[in-house]
Specification:
The protein folds into 4 domains: 85 residues, lambda repressor-like DNA-binding domains (434 Repressor (Amino-terminal Domain)), CATH 1.10.260; 93 residues, 434 Repressor (Amino-terminal Domain); 193 residues, Endonuclease, Chain A; 178 residues, no CATH class. 49% of the residues lie in helices and 14% in strands. The strands form 2 sheets. The protein has an 8-stranded mixed β-sheet with strand order 1-7-6-5-2-3-4-8, with helices on both faces. Strands 9-15-14-13-10-11-12 form a 7-stranded mixed β-sheet, sandwiched between helices.
């Protein structure tokens, strides 16, 4: 076997983890016991790693310790050209390579259960399995003794519970076929089983468009573009009684716009409540209507009303994300409160409920026949009161899709983060700029003065940095924190300089970093990495986001923070959306 340790510490390409680890051990002429002692891992763990019986998690402390142990062992042998970060990257890439070479049945099963929101206990009872057994299979901890029979049972359950048009659409979206291809039961079974049992998995990208739009969105530019800052909310001395019915798509579009118009004109300042699982595709197909509809919502916000909306999330995740993208400009105002209803509510009927104080609209249709729906608009006091009360009942059954924090809710955000940090097990962040808490105070003062930040603002930021550092120190005492940041060349930096990362401070002022300051901040983060066992700072190969930061408290919530002023934070609770954000992956930077 050729020499696997080169001058820059790289080893042979396209090897799985156990092979690369074994090559390191052979080239260093060390024993597993020596490596165990230098890495702080047990000899038994090293042995299992070499045999391929076990692998560390890509984000684990064990992987970091192993990289350090290899470097220490090399130095004991008189080899000085190994770098801890480079060795870590090589081992990390080996784990990624190993993921790609394994059969991914369990990952596909997990994806199907998650995206279809399948109740595992009910499925297990129907198939006569223990729920814990299915849970172990979907996490890869167990392999079915008869994979063929197990897969057939799973497919049969899915087909029986997702056989209507909407259910087939959801399944078709996951397995990458057209809904029409699943109309016949035999074809449905063949397509689903073939996808579930194939050995490859194309990781779905549900959130890149949403994140890209949020990253590029500039609220100030948007306000100027639609003249939101100069909009005048019309007033009328009185409102005429309304009692109007709408039939067919054309009239229903008119009805929705009429509802928004009456909401704006009404004297009531009560919030606007919206809930609809009506199909949106045929309504949105009219571009002129879409523009007027979004303008109507902008007028509602301009009036000062808050909007409580229950989003329909029981659709393919890709479609859900496309729908949410359109709401980003409105979310940025901080006046939107989004919710969702857990589970599939109804496969036969579709409904619409809008309420805004003295105006109400209701609608219904048979699913799949939106063009024959009936909408009803009224400002009759009794009817509006009943609709409003029903919306209040509905919100009690709903869950927050996300919590949105702007400066006026700063204290609430800080309290939330402090409370959550107490029980945090692992935090992962995708950064737009080097982390604030690792920046030396002297360097931070220089950056702030160069940007002409006032003394009061400087003190405000320094106080926040101290608070953030203290919070991080508490977390690192018991938990792992992983930060990922794109490495940018000086040439690239000229066109897209970074802003100082301080969204939680709500300074509402963009503070630019020079390239030299950016490099100094990166070095400070790398130093913090070496000094704190539970902290990992990684540089990525590809360019990430310039204006947003993603924080994931895995299994509980994710937060997307806008770094550019005005600062805003979206704490996301919905499992599908949270999972998609947790699995945003940026390749680790190869310094070799």
């Amino acid at each position: 076997m050729e020499n696997c340790v080169s001058e820059n510490g790289r080893v042979g390409e396209n090897m799985i983890f156990c092979e690369k680890l074994s090559e390191y051990i052979e080239e260093l002429s060390c024993t597993g016991k020596e490596l165990a002692q230098n890495s702080g891992l047990s000899e038994a763990v090293i042995s299992r790693y070499r045999k391929g019986e076990r692998v560390p998690s890509k984000d684990s402390i064990q992987l970091k310790k192993l990289a350090e142990g290899i470097v220490w062992t090399a130095r004991d042998k008189g080899i000085q050209n190994l770098n801890k970060r480079e060795v870590f990257q090589i081992l990390y890439e080996a784990l990624v390579q190993e993921e790609h070479t394994e059969i991914v049945f369990h990952e596909k099963l997990d994806q199907m259960i998650r995206e279809l929101d399948i109740n595992v206990s009910k499925m297990a009872a129907s198939l006569h399995y223990d729920a814990s057994y299915i849970s172990k299979v979907r996490t890869g901890r167990r392999i079915p003794s008869n994979p063929e029979a197990f897969a057939k049972g799973i497919c049969g359950y899915i087909i029986s519970h997702f056989s209507d048009e909407r259910g087939r659409e959801n399944v078709a979206s996951i397995i990458g076929v057209g809904e029409k291809e699943l109309e016949e039961k035999e074809d449905y079974l063949e397509k689903l089983k073939g996808w579930l049992c194939s050995g490859t998995l194309a990781k779905p990208d549900y959130v890149s468009g949403f994140l890209k739009k949020m990253d590029e969105f500039d609220l100030n530019h948007y306000i100027r573009a639609i003249h939101f800052d100069t909009l005048k909310v019309p007033k009328v001395p009185f409102q005429l009684p309304i009692s109007k019915h709408y039939y067919g798509l054309k009239e229903m579009r008119e009805g929705e716009l009429e509802f928004l118009k009456n909401t704006v004109l009404a004297k009531s300042m009560e919030p606007l409540y919206m809930c609809s699982d009506m199909p949106v595709e045929d309504m949105a197909a009219d571009e002129d209507f879409s523009k007027k509809y979004m303008f109507g919502l902008a007028m509602v916000l301009k009036k000062g009303l808050h909007i409580h909306i229950v989003h329909d999330v029981e659709r393919p995740v890709k479609d859900m994300m496309l729908g949410l993208e359109n709401w980003i400009p409105l979310y940025m105002t901080g006046q939107i409160h989004p919710y969702y209803l857990k589970g599939i509510q109804n496969r036969v009927y579709s409904h619409l409920h809008y309420s805004s104080g003295t105006v109400a609209m209701t609608g219904n249709c048979i699913s799949g026949h939106h063009d024959h729906a009936h909408y009803y608009l009224t400002n009759n006091r009794e009817e509006a009161a009943v609709c409003r009360k029903n919306m209040e009942f509905l919100l009690k059954k709903a869950r927050p899709l996300m919590d949105i924090y702007r400066e006026e809710r700063k204290k609430e955000l800080w309290d939330f983060l402090d409370e959550e940090s107490e029980g945090m097990e692992r935090e992962r962040r995708i950064l737009a700029a080097p982390p604030l808490f690792t920046v030396p105070e002297k360097l931070l003062s220089v950056i702030l003065k160069r940007n002409q930040v006032t003394e009061n603002e400087q003190q405000k930021l320094l106080n926040y940095q101290k608070m953030q550092r203290n919070r991080m120190e508490k977390i690192l005492c018991r938990s792992t924190v992983i930060d990922e940041l794109p490495l940018i060349s000086e040439k690239e930096y000229v066109g897209h300089p970074m802003l100082l990362s301080m969204p939680e401070c709500f300074l509402e002022k963009d503070v630019l970093l020079s390239y030299e300051e950016y490099c100094a901040c990166v070095k400070a983060a790398e130093l913090y990495d070496t000094e704190h066992e539970n902290y990992q700072f990684r540089l990525t190969k590809v360019k990430g986001f310039r204006n947003i930061q993603i924080t994931c408290y895995e299994g509980k919530w994710c937060m997307v923070s806008k770094n550019r002023a005005p600062a805003i934070h979206f704490v996301i609770h919905h499992p599908k959306l949270r999972y998609a954000l947790e699995n945003v992956r940026l390749p680790i930077m190869d310094n070799g």
